[in-house]
Amino acid sequence: MKYQLAQLNVAKFRLPSEHPDNDGFHNYIDRINEIAESQPGFIWRLVGEGNDATDIQAFDDPDMIVNMSLWENLDTLFEFVYRNQEHKNIMRKRKDWFDKMEFHLVLWWVKEGHIPSLHEAKQKLKLIQEKGASEHAFSFARPFPAPTY
User: What DSSP state is assigned to residue 99?
Assistant: First the structure.
């Protein structure tokens, strides 16, 4: 059986989403998604009413946003996040728009062809928050290989 890597990334705006100070982020989001979709190993991403997931209210706090996607493996996601220069340049500005969060990312393996739900992703985030990294929910700092069963 083949597995793919799912990721959930959450962020909390420092100011309300529609505040003019967040225009830079809103102006970049389509480009960020375009870059991701063009990367080797990209499979799928969560999309709401527009071309991104910023309108999906996954949490009670309306200033929390989510990004969720599927990748062929850990290496392809790592390459995009940490080695794609354009993505890195945009993400360096993250602190201008978002509060620092202890747990903002969770990774987990899904069977090939499975599209994870937002509910599933939130459970994985809660799992890593409560129990730390494991083969069920992990991060780049402490990754786990795909299952072999």
Answer: -
103 token code pair: 């747990």
Is the CB of residue 112 less than 8 Å from the CB of residue 3? Answer: yes
Q: From the CB of residue 87, how many other CB atoms can be counted at a distance below 10 Å?
A: 19
Give the distance, in angstroms, between the CA of residue 76 and the centroid of all CA atoms in the same chain.
Answer: 14
Helix (H/G/I), strand (E/B), else coil: 20: helix
Q: How many residues does the chain have?
A: 149
Give the tokens for residue 43. Answer: 């499979």
Geometric angle at alpha carbon 60, from 54 and 61, rounded to 5°: 65
- The 10s digit of each residue's pLDDT in 20-64 is 999 999 999 999 999 999 999 999 999 998 889 999 999 999 999
Sheet strand arrangement including 42-45: 42-45, 64-71, 3-12, 105-111
Q: b vs e for 105-115, b when ≥16 Cβ sit within 10 Å of the residue's Cβ?
A: bbbbbeeeeee
